[in-house]
What does this fold into?
Amino acid sequence: MLVVKIGGGDSINLDGIARDLSTVEGPKVIVHGANALRDRLARRLGVEKRILTSVSGYTSVYSDAELIDVMLLAYAGLGNKRIVESFQAHGVNAVGLTGLDGALVRGMRNKGIRVRENGKTRIMRDLSGKPVAVNRKLLGLLLDNDFVPVVTVPIIDERNVAINSENDDIVALLSAALAPKLVVQLIEAPGFLEDENDPSSVVAHIPREDLARREREATGRMKRKLLAIRRLVASGSTRVVIADGRSEHPVADVMAGKGTVIG
Amino acid sequence: MLVVKIGGGDSINLDGIARDLSTVEGPKVIVHGANALRDRLARRLGVEKRILTSVSGYTSVYSDAELIDVMLLAYAGLGNKRIVESFQAHGVNAVGLTGLDGALVRGMRNKGIRVRENGKTRIMRDLSGKPVAVNRKLLGLLLDNDFVPVVTVPIIDERNVAINSENDDIVALLSAALAPKLVVQLIEAPGFLEDENDPSSVVAHIPREDLARREREATGRMKRKLLAIRRLVASGSTRVVIADGRSEHPVADVMAGKGTVIG
It folds into this structure.
């Protein structure tokens, strides 16, 4: 079992990933983002994106109903289906799904995010939450019949409402359910960088016991990603590789030892 | 087996359809449009929609790559997933799919549409085509396990490219594969109207042998719909009902005998 998380940046080589995956035997699950597409679409539609930073330093997008609409347009619509199209073109029998479809990824809505505003702490509640359960029946049906699920947000909350969630948390949950040997995280960098401004500073290996420290030192989205990865490698014998999604052969590069190996 | 085509108008009562369908036993397949959403989105994005009228009088949307993008945003994204969300809220275990997913609906790209322009006939070729084959394996897997496929365009052509297609043709193809007893067409009118400007002129019954004449007399989208319905009822013992998707109980109304029965 292989799980591949494809980052949502514009320079990710989707076609190269599809080509590489067509040569990898065995069951696979894909989780993808579409943040660049979402941001571009939101700008064109005049929808404002608001970033919250929690008191503990994690950033997230404030998701109101309008932003969920934009997410459905960008992630579930254009982003997901162009990936499915590219996979199909390379002979990978992809089926695109959100967490809503067949209630594939059930979540619990966040009670609220504690933010500091003008020197005061307030609780902001939005349409976001944590994934807590996977519909194994649907996932199993697809995997047992050689389909490749291509999964993205939104997920479905306890009241059957579409909510935003971190794709990295979905990867962690799917991995707990599927126990993949390998989880590949394809991002817009050659791996985890010692110095985020120096692409040559790739850390070849992060032992499990260093993750908490790395997470404390990281900022922005990488901080959140490392939190999700720490949970992921804590749960079992899964190896995680963070690698470059922009290269000519993003997945083949991982198999050849490139990127940052975690665990 | 029940097939329901949900029209893509803004005044369709999606929630009422979901509620009604939660009380209907047995396997169901949904096909839906999203043309009002697409048109609104295209306007907001400044994407122009071009309507072609073929020399034989059928109208269609000229689909270039940009319009397929808008279709993926509107049909596959926002439209499909809000329907899935509403179905899930009513306990109907919907799985939203386009024809791309698992190559569910394979099409053949149109060779070109013959149009008259400035007194001359030209061939216009775009990203559109006819659905020709259904992936019965995927459809069967879902139906046998009590999932409700919610299907929309685009479909996938012989070269694995996303193309536009008529949802009514997809309904006809799915019906040929599934042999449903009943196909319900929910539109923004109380049924097929003798006079399209008079909502009280619902035709209660159109016998199979009258369809060719009705089709000749119809204009615009209804002409195309009747062509698809004629093929559909010609193929078997399927009954088609055209009914009002805007009412409080669109599907229950059909079961109670409202709308236009064809066949």
The longest strand of chain B covers residues 129-134. Chain B touches chain A through 40 residues (CB under 8 Å).
